[in-house]
Design a protein that fits this description.
14 helices, peptidoglycan synthesis, four-stranded mixed β-sheet, EC 2.5.1.7, binds phosphoenolpyruvate, transferase, binds uridine-diphosphate-N-acetylglucosamine, cell wall biogenesis/degradation
């Protein structure tokens, strides 16, 4: 298994290009299943999860190729899709596979998708996805680890419905929105997720001929149509990758421009960094971040909530800043029940953190000391890399296959900014 070897103490300078968003690309690859026409996606990031999703849809009979002349461009054609299934072998490695369920059921009237199974950060059930599709008339049987979805006898389409999920769910909103595009009549999603990736997906679906209003609010209204056509779409920039680099510069110190970053998608994180004393400003086509290093800055208390609140996907990375910033801080994780596994690894580096249920209490320390640590999940991995950038001596982060799920060769981007970091195969 690959590892990252980091020698701390280097400030970061220069600029980097933020990639397309993992959490937009994944549902948008599934949106291509809704039409028999060709769909072209630009700015598709080179991530392990994207490779897994491409393998999943190719397994269904979809042609999906990256353009040899432009590796961020993917052309998909689901006209030959003849196996509306998502098998466990692929689904178990990527929870976002559940996003195939709505499109397959809506277009073909049946689908067989494996239950995602366990995940490091929490149980992450998909009951709201199932509840919403049942409200649209789907007949769903869950057995032998699979979701078997079909339409009632005599029905050829899902039926529009008013759906209120028990909690805000990002992929739940996306699954139901995609299914509703081909349903008969109107669907209203109450309590819908407002994330920029949901908005980007809706904009792609509208280019395909869908009738959607209210995306970006808690109330999304969809008028179903009989068929959707192809489109070209540019995947929105990844606000979590950008936020990760904001925290890296804040912690290590330096002055970096994040090209293509959308400051308007990162208000909650930027506000906290500015409160800490970090300079964050919009510049032509991106965001500039400058910091003297965390030791000269104030740790920040925050709690994760649904968008536009502080994103749970940024909790671990900002904690890595807090552990070496001045003073005490409190982090509250309200979205997932087990998203503090980076804490014990940060403690190995010398961090002073106490976890009590949903709350982590942190006292900033003047220095961390490098050690070997183990990545446990995607954003925990990023947190350990940030800590390694500021720790004295050498830090080795093990099991970085977690990192590769959501970051495109992070070490190359950091090395280009002056970090002493390399990927090694032990
Ligand atoms: C591919 C993708 O877009 N992943 C994002 C998506 O994950 P994902 O869509 O899986 O996360 P959700 O927004 O659905 O989860 C929010 C909460 O609702 C719970 N829940 C969700 C669905 C359900 O049917 N039942 C249920 O109980 C979850 O366990 C969690 O506690 O949103 C998360 C929350 O912003 C992010 O951390 C992930 O990066
Ligand atoms: C939890 C995350 O992703 P996923 O839902 O794909 O596991 C994440 O991007 O932080």
């Amino acid at each position: 298994m690959d590892q990252l070897r980091i020698r701390g103490g280097h400030r970061l300078h220069g600029d980097l290009m933020v990639s397309g968003a993992k959490n937009a690309a994944l549902p948008e690859l599934c949106a291509a299943l809704l039409t028999a026409d060709a769909v072209t996606l630009h700015n598709v990031p080179a991530l392990q999860d994207v490779s897994t999703m491409l393998k999943l849809i190719r397994n269904m009979g979809v042609t999906a190729e990256r353009d040899p002349a432009d590796s961020d461009k993917v052309v998909l054609h689901a006209g030959g899709l003849d196996k509306p299934e998502a098998p466990y072998e692929l689904v178990k490695t990527m929870r976002a596979s559940i996003l195939a369920l709505g499109p397959l059921l809506a277009r073909f009237g049946h689908a067989r998708v494996s239950l995602p199974g366990g995940c490091a950060i929490g149980s992450r059930p998909v009951d709201q996805h199932i509840k919403g599709l049942q409200a649209m008339g789907a007949v769903i049987v869950v057995e032998h680890g699979y979701i078997e979805a079909s339409l009632p006898t005599g029905r050829t389409r899902l039926q529009g419905a008013r759906i209120s999920t028990d909690m805000v769910t990002v992929t739940g909103t996306e699954n139901l929105m995609m299914a509703a595009c081909l349903a008969e009549g109107e669907t209203v999603l109450e309590n819908a997720a407002q994330e920029p990736e949901v908005v980007d997906l809706a904009e792609m679906l509208i280019k395909m001929g869908a009738h959607i209003e209210g995306h970006g609010t808690h109330h999304i209204r969809i008028q179903g149509v009989e068929r959707l056509h192809g489109c070209e779409h540019h995947v929105v920039a990844d606000r979590i990758e950008a936020g990760t680099f904001l925290c890296a510069v804040a912690a290590a110190g330096g002055d970096v421009v994040l090209k293509a970053a959308r400051a308007d998608h990162m208000d909650a994180v930027i506000d906290k960094l500015r409160d800490a004393g970090v300079t964050v400003e919009c510049v032509d086509g991106g965001v500039r971040v400058a910091s003297p290093g965390a030791g000269a800055l104030k740790a920040q208390t925050f709690r994760t909530t649904e968008y536009p609140g502080f994103p749970t996907d940024m909790q671990a990375q900002f904690m890595a800043f807090n552990v070496v910033a001045q003073g005490a801080s409190k982090v509250t994780e309200t979205i997932f029940e087990n998203r503090y596994m980076h804490v014990q690894e940060l403690q190995r580096l010398g961090a002073d953190i106490q976890v009590e249920g949903k709350v982590a209490l942190i006292n900033g320390v003047p220095r961390l000391s490098g050690a070997t640590v183990m990545a446990t999940d995607l954003r925990a991995s990023a947190s350990l890399v940030i800590a390694g950038l500021v720790a004295d001596g050498e830090t080795t982060v093990d099991r970085i296959y977690h990192l590769d799920r959501g970051y495109d060769r992070m070490e190359n981007k950091l090395r280009a900014l002056g970090a002493d970091i390399e990927r090694v195969k032990p």
